[in-house]
Structure formats: C-alpha cells, structure tokens
Amino acid sequence: MKLHLNTTAGQNTIFAHEPDYVDINGVRHRQPVLLTPDWLHSPWEVNNVATLQFSDFAALVAHKPAIVVFGSGGKFLFPDMAVMAAFSQAQIGFEVMDTGAACRTYNVLMSEGRNVAAALLIQ
Question: What span, in angstroms and rounded, lies between the C-alpha atoms of 119 and 91?
C-alpha cells in the first residue's frame, strides 16, 4: 500500500509497505528494520515475535524514544510480556500492531513532531 504524506526533508518517512517490504525514503527494505525520524538500522537481526527479547531493541532504546511502534508482520502478534514490561519499566510507550498499521502510525506521529521510533518485522 502506498502512503502519501507531506514530509520534512531529512526525516525517515515510510512511503509504502507490502507484505514483503517497507519503502523508507524510496528504498525497499525486505528485512526487519528499526527507525526513528533521523536514524535507520537495517537489517534488524530478528525474525520471530516469539523469540524477541528487550535486548533486541537496545539500539533503538539508545535513541531514547518516547514511544515505540512495533509492527509484528502481517498478523497482530504480541511479544512476550517480559518485553512489554521492560518497556514500561524504561518509561517508553510500546504499541503493538501489524506492520501496515505500524507504518501508518509511525508516519502520523513523526509528522506531529513526536519522539517516535518504529521496529518493523517484514512478513
């Protein structure tokens, strides 16, 4: 699905997503990715929601986001409760949704100037 948004130059914007890729600034990423408006890490070396640990998000957490939008792939799947509890303990919001919804939510929050990050699994 193509997303249309007025963007600010220099920010990582998601322009499209499909089950097998996410287009960030015109580049298709076919592997999991971490991003903030000014930082991108690809590939993110995870593949499975069931095995995620809080330490898998360390590079993202280092950017001190106020909220992380987690896209679990094509299906809405929660990571282990210990991951969610660790985000809560770190006082970082952690929202779980399928990757398509996470892409749209990230763009909206970014366009509002929110301190947002995204962790996106690709199906």
Answer: 17
